[in-house]
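Example for tutorial group B:
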């Protein structure tokens, strides 16, 4: 893992990780979006041969970040889980038991369709629209911010943002990124088993691309 990138936002110290998450130092909070746990199991149920190692690697990446940053809480900005319960989500419950002191806050995304009982058993606190802590708010889809009349700076996910970077010989490559505007940030999808939606940043926006396990400020 490359060294996290220090980014000061509204007087708060944020650390951008090449493992596709952000650490909010003042609140000791690890912020992540679109983990899509259980997605590989869902595809296998549909007869599509996706190796279980994809899910196991994602869990290990999360563990490594918890060990590195030592957060008090994990804030998931939607789509923590991909579909209905399957064997992979049973594994998550066992994994959860290894971190009893970690508070997990989930802002519900469009893929988070498990029954409330399941979240309670997994010790995951759920929020149906948004969560606000100090000067930041968290919701899954930034397009819902206007309806909720949020005045805080917003962290969101949902779109899996990516950026094109041009190289020599008219070649372009696509990379996941953190996309900051003056009023909100769209986090990269944590799961590597997702596509990318190319963004078109404006002059006042900031983009931090994840390239070869390194954060690059474009």
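The residue assignment follows.
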């Amino acid at each position: 893992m490359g060294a996290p990138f220090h980014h000061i936002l509204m007087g708060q110290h944020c650390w951008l990780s090449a493992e596709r998450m952000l650490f909010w130092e003042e609140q000791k909070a690890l912020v992540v979006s679109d983990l899509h746990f259980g997605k590989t199991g869902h595809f296998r149920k549909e007869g599509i041969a996706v190796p279980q190692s994809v899910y196991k690697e994602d869990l290990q990446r999360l563990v490594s970040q918890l060990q590195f940053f030592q957060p008090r809480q994990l804030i998931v900005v939607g789509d923590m889980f991909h579909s209905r319960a399957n064997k992979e989500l049973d594994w998550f419950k066992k994994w959860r038991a290894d971190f009893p002191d970690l508070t997990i806050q989930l802002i519900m995304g469009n893929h988070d369709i498990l029954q409330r009982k399941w979240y309670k058993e997994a010790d995951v606190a759920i929020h149906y629209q948004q969560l606000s802590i100090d000067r930041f708010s968290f919701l899954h889809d930034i397009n819902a911010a206007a309806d909720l009349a949020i005045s805080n700076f917003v962290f969101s996910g949902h779109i899996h943002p990516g950026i094109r970077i041009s190289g020599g010989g008219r070649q372009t490559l696509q990379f996941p990124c953190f996309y900051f505007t003056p009023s909100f940030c769209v986090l990269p999808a944590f799961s590597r088993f997702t596509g990318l939606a190319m963004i078109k940043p404006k002059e006042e926006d900031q983009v931090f691309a994840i390239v070869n396990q390194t954060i690059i400020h474009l």
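The chain has five helices and 16 strands. Compare this with the pattern of hydrophobic and polar residues in the output above.
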